[in-house]
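> forwarded from #structure-qc
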């Protein structure tokens, strides 16, 4: 999930400064009360509401898989999820699970068949 933009955070805090109720601000801008409280605390402590960087190392598999998968599906549409996983591991040396493969295929534009044709 991506962080709310700094622009939205500033608009929310500006509405609070103008005297709007926190619950009303949350409804108007579509943000939760805990987020509003967190942004108020951040502004009070540091003077800024810049989103924090995402912790941990950057994701590697997802980006590689998203680049590799469309051409793989075009050339081999009848492979199973396990066979796509094996091909990915052989081609790029990175192992992915069936669940990751399935989610990535589901996020691709267009529709890919779930059932495979008979040999």
């Amino acid at each position: 999930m991506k962080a709310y933009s700094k622009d939205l955070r500033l608009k929310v805090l500006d509405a609070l400064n103008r005297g709007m109720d926190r619950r009303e601000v949350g409804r108007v801008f579509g943000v939760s009360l805990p987020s509003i409280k967190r942004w108020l605390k951040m502004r009070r402590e540091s003077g800024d509401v810049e989103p924090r960087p995402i912790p941990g190392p950057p994701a590697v598999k997802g980006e590689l898989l998203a680049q590799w998968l469309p051409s793989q599906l075009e050339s081999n549409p009848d492979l199973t999820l396990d066979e796509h996983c094996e091909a990915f591991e052989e081609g790029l040396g990175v192992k992915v699970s069936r669940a990751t493969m399935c989610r990535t295929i589901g996020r691709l534009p267009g529709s890919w068949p779930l059932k495979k044709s008979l040999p």
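QC bot note: The chain has a mean pLDDT of 89. The chain is about 60% helix and 0% strand.
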